[in-house]
RNA sequence: CGGGGUGUAGCGCAGCCUGGUAGCGCACCUGCAUGGGGUGCAGGUGGUCGCAGGUUCAAAUCCUGCCUCCCCGACCA
């Protein structure tokens, strides 16, 4: 490729609305252009990168035994009504109607469609297991798209769906996908971590996420400092406090706490640490009646854990203040578990307290020196809170630290949830109908590009890893306009690299050197060979790796260039 | 969806308060000079000032409505 023939538009200035490095650089380097909120065009340079990621994903999926197909992005409503997700997915799904008034959606995912095809085509256990994948555009109408292609509404996803006669077969494919994903992210060259995850809206039993570690990541991960344990904080279990509860020391007492609406205010007013206070939230139960969730004052309720509790309605729905007053006798800020006429679910840590403070269920009043089993019944205990930095890891591997990550992959064991809902059956060896086990496996292909830039950039621009760079090496003549000798030498080297099968590009734009260098660094090409009269005079070329501090002279031979591309550089005097 | 901001040339912004010829930087085009780190000088192209309505002799500017985009929040009592 010659850059004079390849439209790239770079900018010196950073667009005002780009917040994170990858978004800024993708715009500045001209990889993407925004069309509308959460909608981006991939410009030629960006597309080359995207296609390289795709190629790696495709190769590794195929190597791991998955077979590619392509399903429509527009899907009929009937399939989603069968699975129950036409309404459950909510406004995240973009719905539309055709000229015959039939309902469709732009597919946010493809479990329904693949189940439909499998129930048509797969009749016998002999055809299983099977693992289909596609690389295809999805649309999810995100509440708030942000960070460029990191959280866009339309995005490219690799999704795979496997079907099995039994759990052992599913586990085998799940592990094969886990290994394939590991290879994919290792090949791309990003620093990533596999974490345990909640299954979220997709559902199912077991799942793990692949996160690219980056400070700008939207997800918080709990990682054992000295061990293997790692989990999304949404799913990270907390341990019950060790040992028995301390013995109560004083009688329960009601005290005035006027105008105290938050734990902080109550804690300051009473001179009692937040960890000795209880925080009480009223939420809707599955039976449409309110129930109370209680955590320690310094802890936060974890929505995902709460929603997973059998008594709590999913999604977690807070009762409003007037309803709280009607059923508990007090407004927000003065609620507590004592004397409440509703189920009370208490987090481990809150259940381990003695002599604690909590709302008195009377406005402006709290109770102090409250004790479980004495002043109110022994609580029903659950894990409700979000894990904090320094908490023990649930596997006993020491304290966790909280790091941030960008979710680029997610693998699930779905069990029979969809095959039952969609009535997918095959005949087993005994001739009986059975619902297959199912797994699904996703990679956010467009997001991988952005996540990679978050890790691979410096103050000059993008520093592509070789694996997904749009071009591997650029041949850059100095003053090609004036020096036909430099221009000629550059052309010849470029042609020679091409015939070696190298993804080379010639910068024949006739730019001034400063502009050219700044541009090439911004777009992040891993290797640069500068050809100029000055170096030619001494029989040399100048080589610089994008991530190296200094350029070095190499002999003016193809072999020396090829060696340099392999990282084999001559010793410098 | 709630709150805050924003909208003026492809990008970044000023002008608006106090109504009166639409500006600056970057980018782009032309010429000359320059030629190893975003070069200099000169000239130039490009804008129904988000949309609609209103006030006024006159609206980018004041008023009303709508829209866009961005940020924060979206149950933590």
Description of the structure:
With 573 residues, the chain is an alpha+beta fold. The chain contains 16 helices and 30 strands. The strands form eight sheets. Strands 3, 7, 8, 9, 10, 11, 12, 20 and 23 form a nine-stranded mixed beta sheet that branches. It has a five-stranded mixed beta sheet with strand order 27-26-28-29-30. α1 (21-28) packs across α12 (445-455), α2 (44-63) packs antiparallel against α6 and α2 (44-63) packs across α12 (445-455). The longest helix has 22 residues, at 167-188. It is globular. The chain starts with 20 loop residues before the first helix and ends in an 8-residue tail after the last helix. 41% of the residues are buried. The model has no long low-confidence stretch (mean pLDDT 92). The protein binds one RNA strand of 77 nucleotides through β14 and α14.
């Amino acid at each position: 490729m010659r850059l004079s023939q390849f439209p790239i538009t770079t900018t010196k200035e950073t667009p005002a609305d780009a917040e994170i490095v990858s978004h800024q650089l993708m715009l500045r380097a001209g990889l993407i252009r925004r069309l509308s909120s959460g909608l981006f065009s991939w410009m030629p340079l960006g597309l080359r990168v995207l296609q390289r990621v795709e190629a790696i994903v495709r190769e590794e999926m195929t190597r791991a035994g998955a077979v590619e197909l392509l399903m429509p992005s527009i899907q009929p409503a009937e399939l989603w009504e069968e699975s129950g997700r036409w309404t459950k997915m909510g406004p995240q799904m973009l719905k539309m109607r055709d000229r015959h008034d039939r309902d469709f959606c732009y597919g946010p995912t493809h479990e329904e469609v693949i189940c439909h095809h499998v129930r048509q085509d797969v009749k016998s256990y002999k055809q299983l297991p099977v693992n289909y994948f596609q690389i295809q555009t999805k649309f999810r109408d995100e509440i708030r798209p942000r960070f460029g292609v990191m959280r866009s509404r339309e995005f490219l996803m690799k999704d795979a769906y496997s079907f099995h006669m039994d759990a052992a077969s599913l586990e085998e494919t799940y592990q094969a996908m886990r290994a394939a994903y590991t290879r994919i992210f290792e090949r791309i060259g990003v620093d990533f971590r596999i974490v345990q995850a909640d299954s979220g809206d997709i559902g199912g039993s077991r799942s793990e996420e692949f996160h690219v570690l980056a400070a700008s990541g939207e997800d918080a991960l709990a990682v054992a400092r000295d061990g293997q344990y790692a989990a999304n904080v949404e799913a990270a279990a907390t341990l019950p406090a060790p040992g028995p509860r301390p013995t109560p020391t004083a009688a329960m007492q009601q005290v005035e706490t006027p105008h105290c609406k938050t734990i902080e205010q109550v804690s300051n007013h009473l001179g009692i640490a937040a960890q000795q206070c209880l925080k009480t939230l009223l939420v809707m139960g599955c039976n449409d009646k309110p129930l109370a969730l209680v955590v320690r004052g310094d802890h936060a309720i974890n929505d995902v854990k709460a929603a997973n509790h059998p008594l709590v309605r999913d999604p977690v729905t807070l009762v409003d203040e007037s309803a709280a007053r009607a059923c508990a006798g007090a407004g927000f800020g003065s609620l507590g578990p004592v004397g409440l006429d509703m189920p009370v679910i208490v987090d481990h840590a809150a259940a381990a307290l003695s002599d604690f403070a909590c709302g008195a269920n009377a406005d402006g009043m709290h109770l102090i020196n409250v004790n479980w089993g004495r002043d109110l019944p022994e609580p029903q205990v659950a894990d409700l809170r979000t894990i904090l930095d320094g908490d023990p890891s649930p596997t006993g591997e020491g304290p966790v630290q909280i790091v941030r990550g960008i979710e680029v992959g997610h693998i699930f064991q779905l069990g029979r949830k969809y095959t039952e809902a969609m009535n997918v059956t095959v005949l087993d060896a005994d001739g009986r109908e059975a619902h297959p086990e199912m797994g699904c496996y996703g990679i956010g292909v467009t997001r991988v590009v952005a996540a990679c830039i978050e890790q691979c950039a410096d103050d000059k621009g993008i520093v592509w890893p070789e694996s997904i760079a749009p071009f591997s090496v650029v041949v850059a003549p100095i003053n090609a306009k004036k020096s036909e000798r430099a221009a000629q030498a550059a052309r010849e080297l470029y042609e020679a690299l091409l015939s070696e099968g190298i993804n080379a590009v010639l910068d024949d734009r006739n730019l001034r050197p400063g502009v050219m260098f700044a541009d090439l660094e911004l777009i992040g090409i891993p290797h640069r060979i500068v050809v100029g009269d000055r170096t030619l005079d001494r029989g040399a070329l100048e080589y610089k790796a994008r991530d190296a501090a200094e350029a070095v002279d190499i002999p003016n031979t193809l072999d020396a260039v090829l060696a340099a591309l392999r990282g084999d550089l001559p010793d410098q005097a």
